[in-house]
Specification:
By secondary structure, the protein is mainly α. It has helices at about 1-45, 50-65, 70-80, 85-95, 100-115, 120-130, 135-150, 150-165, 170-180, 185-200, 220-225. It starts with a helix and ends with a helix.
């Protein structure tokens, strides 16, 4: 019996070590597989294979639920497909796992905007900014919500903060011009619009269609901006 036990002991150790190693290394193996799937998802997106990309990203977050970037892209795909409820469910599920991820709160807010849930969207942007006060995109989005709600002074404060953090964002300058346009402030509208076109010249072809600039349609300076940018 003793001889039998001595002969079996290395085997017992080997089996124990196998299961111990599997337990320790499995998370790293899963993360590695998740990374491979995430890269596949990126490739599928680049060639426009959306359904394949969705499948790859779903598999990614199943293997590594803490991959906030995969969750984020998954939500953005659904949002851009106008599948807003699916996108919202993705972000809600992700935030149960990653409640401190400001990017997920921000993009959850953008989905709620598309669903015309402005007050709920504002709460999402506020949460993103609680987690990351220097998140310029969230400040911009907060400003847009205030604009849509008619809270124009608050919109200016939020957009000014976004510009302070990222002064080269043409989109934020454009939104600030919209706010001043809603206030019929000609000087500030033109000044902000000029900065918007400096960083995003492609907008010049569309500014005459913006309702907030309607009061400037006969203005000479506005006409120059809409025809060409410096």
């Amino acid at each position: 019996m003793k001889k039998f036990l001595l002969l079996c002991l290395p085997l017992v150790h080997a089996v124990a070590f196998y299961y111990f190693a599997s337990f320790i290394l499995e998370p790293y193996k899963s993360r590695g597989q998740a990374q491979i799937l995430s890269k596949k998802g990126n490739k599928f997106l680049r060639i426009g294979a959306v359904e394949e990309a969705l499948k790859a990203y779903h598999q990614t977050v199943e293997l590594n639920p803490e991959n906030k970037f995969a969750w984020n892209i998954l939500g953005l795909i659904y949002r851009d497909q106008e599948k807003n409820q699916d996108a919202l469910e993705v972000y809600d599920q992700a935030l149960q796992i990653l409640p401190q991820a400001s990017i997920l709160w921000n993009n959850r807010g953008t989905v709620l905007v598309k669903m015309d849930e402005l007050e709920k969207a504002l709460l999402s942007f506020d949460r993103a900014l609680e987690l990351d006060p220097k998140y310029s995109d969230a400040w911009n989005n907060r400003g847009v919500i205030f604009l849509e709600l008619g809270r124009l002074p608050e919109a200016i404060i939020a957009l000014d903060r976004s510009i302070e953090l990222n002064p080269q964002n043409g989109n934020t300058w454009y939104n600030l011009a919209r706010v001043y346009g809603a206030m019929k402030n000609k000087e500030q509208t033109l000044s902000s619009l000029k900065r918007a076109l400096q960083w995003d010249p492609a907008r010049k072809k569309r500014i005459h269609k913006e309702p907030a600039f309607k009061f400037l349609l006969t203005d000479g300076s506005f006409k120059m901006l809409s025809n060409k940018s410096d």
